[in-house]
């Protein structure tokens, strides 16, 4: 099985910086939602429902925060673009073995969005070559951390064409517009011998000559 590519290899608009910022947003919201469901009556279902609902709301509310994020369908099966071409959905599921019904197959609304012709010579009936997903994997143990993946699956299959995992400790992109501080100007170094040391040495030599010491 061929190794999954980085998402940007398939869509240059899916840069490391954009993936990182979006994944950080949904991971922070999801983590807060899960930590808020600690009542004795909470279970996996209530945690999952709240986590999913909070992430959906966060995506809707942050559309204007990122210039490259655009909501294309605001229903429960929310769909959004990162850039101008790729349509995404998100799921709270295992990226290695998704179990949610529409994780590997498109809904009717998604099908209409991903088959819209982008060019004049494109055909609406063409099938998509894959489905893009952000997958949030819930931590199993309390000491573990939730994880976020960006994956492109072959339609109907668990095979990943592209895959990327969020790492909060690493952000490889650094904006070139950041100002570099100017070098500090230091005063010139005085390389002349110190007069006080010379006087002290001369005095010491005179004393030795009077004492007859060498």
List keywords for this structure.
six-stranded mixed beta sheet; 214 residues; alpha+beta; 5 helices
Describe the structure.
The chain has a six-stranded mixed β-sheet, with helices on both faces. It has helices at residues 7-10, 16-35, 44-61, 108-114, 195-211, and strands at residues 69-73, 79-82, 87-91, 131-137, 147-153, 160-165. A hairpin with a 4-residue loop joins strand 2 and strand 3 (87-91). The chain has 214 residues and is of the alpha+beta class. It has one domain. Helix 2 (16-35) crosses helix 3. It contains five helices and six strands, in the order H-H-H-E-E-E-H-E-E-E-H.
How would you briefly describe this protein structure?
This protein is α+β, with helices and mostly antiparallel strands and 214 residues long. The chain contains five helices and six strands.
Number of domains: 1
What structural class do helix, strand and pairing data support? Answer: alpha+beta
How far is the first residue's CA from the last residue's CA? 87 Å
- Which consecutive residue ranges, at least 5 long each, have pLDDT under 50? 116-125, 172-181
Strand content: 15-25%
Order of helices and strands: HHHEEEHEEEH
Give the strand line-up of the largest sheet. Answer: 1-2-3-4-5-6
Oligomeric status of the shown chains? Answer: single chain
Per DSSP E runs of 2 or more residues, the count of β-strands stands at 6
Give the proportion of residues in helices: 25-40%
Overall form = globular
Mean pLDDT across every amino acid position: 82
Number of helices: 5
Largest sheet geometry: 6 strands, mixed
User: What Rg do the Cα atoms give?
Assistant: 31 Å
């Amino acid at each position: 099985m061929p190794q999954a590519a980085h998402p940007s290899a398939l869509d240059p608009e899916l840069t490391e910086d954009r993936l990182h910022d979006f994944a950080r947003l949904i991971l922070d919201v999801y983590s807060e939602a899960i930590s808020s469901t600690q009542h004795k009556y909470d279970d996996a279902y209530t945690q999952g429902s709240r986590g999913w609902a909070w992430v959906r709301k966060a995506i809707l509310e942050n559309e204007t925060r990122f210039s490259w994020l655009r909501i294309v369908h605001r229903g429960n099966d929310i769909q959004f673009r990162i850039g101008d071409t790729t349509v995404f959905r998100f799921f709270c599921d295992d990226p290695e073995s998704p179990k949610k019904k529409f994780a590997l197959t498109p809904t009717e609304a998604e099908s209409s969005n991903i088959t819209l012709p982008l060019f004049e010579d494109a055909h609406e009936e063409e099938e998509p070559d894959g489905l893009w997903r952000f997958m949030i994997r819930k931590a199993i143990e309390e000491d573990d951390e939730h994880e976020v993946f960006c994956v492109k699956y072959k339609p109907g299959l668990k095979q990943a064409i592209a895959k990327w995992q969020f790492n909060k400790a690493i952000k490889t992109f650094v904006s070139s517009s950041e100002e570099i501080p100017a070098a500090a100007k230091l005063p010139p170094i005085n390389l002349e011998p110190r007069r006080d040391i010379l006087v002290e040495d001369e005095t010491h030599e005179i004393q030795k000559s009077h004492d007859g010491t060498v």
